[in-house]
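User: Structure tokens for both sequences below?

Assistant:
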Amino acid sequence: MKKSKLLLGLFLIIFIGAVLFSINSFGYAEEITGASDQPIDSTIDSEVENKEIPAFKLEKRQFVSKSGSLDVFSWETFIKALADPTVSTINITQSFAVPSNPRANLTDELDRDTTNVSGSSRYVGLKPSGIARKVVINGNGNTVDFGAVCITYYDRNIASEGWDLTWENLTIFHGNIYGFTTLNDLSQKNQQLSKMTYKNVINSGSQLIHSPYTDVFIEGKTSTLQVSTYTSPFRQWNTDGDTQINLYVSNVTVAEDATFSMSSLRGGNIHLVSGGNFVMKKNSKMTVNASQMT
């Protein structure tokens, strides 16, 4: 008799536990269904989708791939990538403009000016040592508005190799009289170690580059149009001066099948320093419009 009562008690405990488990499971499923109108593929996926995500997971994170490629989406992330010697390809994933303080949150990477003012020229210098290398900056069809800011470089950047910078698939707006970037602050020797390539670039505003001992390479369909005022997707901006030469460099090479067009306001388009060379490869084309203003 006692044995029968014991077995009955165990049965009731197991039965009640099973009922409570079913009720809890049903209630949890109802909570998930109410949180999403989409079909639920699995209990595990549903739990992940409905958990509150901490704020840091919502931020865009940067990870350098094994091949040295890094996606950037702002001025700050772009400069951090350029100053990182492990990065060989910078992928611009969305358009951006240089802010009013170009050194904000970038005190380890940049020095010089802390303002960005329409109608003027401002400069930021890359501070770290030994970071010069070959870098491809792929705009992926996006736009960067530099405003008055020009990126400059120091001799301490260079260890064994110079800068080899390729800007490609990018629309650029800027108003600086030295270009949106220049190697002008490097010694003559280090400028000659370095080179600048523009591939499928549209430059609007002031001159493309003032860098007297630098070799420049033009590829794809590239243009540089000088204007006194430009309107980018971000702002209307006055450039600094109207007597600039588009290319003030040492040697220029227009690659095979490339198309290059230039126009200036009151200046010329190409000034080759120290008897430099201008080379146009097979099937390349160039259109020049000098002194639009009189």
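Moving on to the next sequence.
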Amino acid sequence: MDHFTDDEYECFACKRRFHAKVFTLSKEWERVEYSGEMPSVDISDSYGLECYCSQECLNLRRDAVMADEGVPIHRPGIGPIEQCAKCHGLVDMEEFHLTYLESYEVHETDFIIRTVDVDYLAVLCRKCHPMKLEECSLTSSADEETNRAENVAAEDARDTQRVSRTVGYSGQTLPTELRHGSP
């Protein structure tokens, strides 16, 4: 039986084992804060869809993975209002929304992964993908109001105010320290 070490992955495209450099396709609940000199991204939860040994392998799988998710690739900007990839409605980037992205990350130590590059593939409005409490672990006051409107107890909403630090890959766990904006 083949066993993987803690820092080892299997490429979803070529099935090669690899470590240290990881190319990923992920979906995240995130919001953008525009209060500083540069916009920053708060990530509530992140789920790794697939991981790859190279950009070439990621390129081979990108369209199929996004099609499986039912989300067309429509790369957003970083403005406060962007367009939903599905319905072309407005997405308030300052509120939590679902984002699809690809990234290139380097394992520096067992506990630190540095994000080298990120390419945003799509954002979805809450009409196309409503925010469910179990999908998001960090909520804003506006999100709590939405949760109350959807008959979610305020206690449940407060209990979920934490920052997720893991990305799952079909049973493999990838700890993250700083994402999107790491030096």
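User: Anything stand out in the second?

Assistant: The first helix runs from residue 55 to 69.
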